[in-house]
Amino acid sequence: MSLDVDLDRLRAADELYFAELYRRLTPRLRARTLSLGASADDVDDIVQEAWTRAFERRDRFLGRGSFEGWLWHTCRRLWFDQIRHAHRRQFVLDSVFTMHLLDPSGGSDCDAISIGLARQEITDSIDDGIVNLPGLQRQVATLRWLLGHSTEQTAAELGVAPGTVKAALYRARAKLRKRLSELHARRRVD
């Protein structure tokens, strides 16, 4: 159920209109952000920051997609940024992709900006891939790859056997490997 927005009222920073949008969309944004594996406290912070950014950047919403989708994208970015910042390191997906996928130049000489953009595209694809994994796989991938928990810690936190964690991780890795291979194939065609 998508909510149509009045772009004129949105851009005019109509406070009553924003309050109505906030009231209607926040419960769904909270639920979706919680499904990423964020704690209830983190969810509140992430959703609040997404609304703050939406207000500050309201002129950037062009109305091509849904306003809720635009906010949801912001929530996802904030969640992944929070994880990366908290650990001050870029996560490594145990053998998800090979070195040729990490080398966005495909072995050719590329400028630093092109390589940086390609690496960002890979990171975004991984982030989107993790978000779109089925429930248990998404939770396991978040705990293991993004938060650095051990298999045993992940199993205890989710209330499942370590073997279940390993199986979910195996399936998640296969899905992400396929996603990255498709991205790599598309980049080679372009």
Quickly give the CATH architecture of the largest domain. Answer: Orthogonal Bundle
Strand elements, count: 0
- The DSSP helix count reads 9
In terms of structural class, how would the helical and strand content be classed? mainly alpha
**Average pLDDT, all residues:** 77
How far apart lie the N and C ends? 36 Å
| Radius of gyration, whole Å | 19 Å
**H/E series, N to C?**
HHHHHHHHH
Class of the largest domain in CATH? Mainly Alpha
Oligomer: single chain
What are the low-pLDDT stretches, counting only 5+ consecutive residues below 50? 88-109
Number of domains: 2
Sheet-strand content, in percent, reads under 5%
Biggest beta sheet attributes: none
Shape: globular
User: What portion of residues is helical?
Assistant: over 70%
Question: Would you spell out the secondary-structure blueprint of this structure?
Answer:
Layout: H1 7-11, H2 15-34, H3 40-56, H4 67-87, H5 99-102, H6 112-131, H7 135-146, H8 151-158, H9 162-189
Helix pairs in contact: 2-3, 2-4, 3-4, 6-9, 7-8, 7-9, 8-9
Notes on the structure:
By secondary structure, the protein is mainly alpha-helical. The chain folds into two domains: 7-87, Rna Polymerase Sigma Factor, Chain: A; 99-189, Winged helix-like DNA-binding domain superfamily/Winged helix DNA-binding domain (Arc Repressor Mutant, subunit A), CATH 1.10.10. It is 71% helix and 0% strand. The protein is built from nine helices and no strands. The longest helix is centred in the last third of the chain and has 28 residues, at 162-189. 22% of the residues are buried. Mean pLDDT is 77; it is low at 88-109.
